[in-house]
Amino acid sequence: MVDRLVHSEANTRRIHIVEQCFGSSGQSLIKVGRVLVGEGVLTKLCRKKAKPRQFFLFNDALVYGNIVIDKKKYNKQHIIPLEDVKLQSLENDGPWKNGWQVISPKKSFAVFAATPTEKAEWMAHINKCIVDLLAKTNKMPATEHAAVWVPDGDASTCMHCLKTKFTPINRRVSFQPSLSCTQTCMSLMR
């Protein structure tokens, strides 16, 4: 399906519309060989709380941004090359259902779909785009990945070493890492 859309006028028009929604603050999304595979609103787990974000899946990138006016205006565009992405499904936990992690070298985060079907479709489409892209470019998947943000109140252990427990005395803010925990761990606590 992606191959026949590559040079289609409809695909170019759809990408141009997405580009216009981000306005002058966004980067150009028109690129030779790029196809808009799908789009939708997912809930992204941010540092303080979960927030709705508009996501666009291209055959080579995952793009998302803040919703200013639904389907008309977005800001704070983020572009993540799919060749660097790895997905990891999350178990349903309390209020967090239908989620998965998007893991990449520069930015990693958790997102949640409205239904199990929507989660399955998003993950299947993203994984297919990743497999196709890696096969086409003969690249290997990325091995280094950024830690996934967990809301401040929910982090009970160090997200780097996964050993240090946070307590009222050993708080996230004043945390001094153990020898087994690198400086990366300290920078994650800031």
From TrEMBL:
Residues 35-131 form the PH domain. It comes from the Eukaryota. GO terms for biological process: endosome organization; endosome to lysosome transport. GO terms for molecular function: phosphatidylinositol binding; zinc ion binding. It holds the Pfam family SOS1_NGEF_PH. One of its GO terms (cellular component) is early endosome. Keywords: Metal-binding, Zinc, Zinc-finger. This is Pleckstrin homology domain-containing family F member 2.
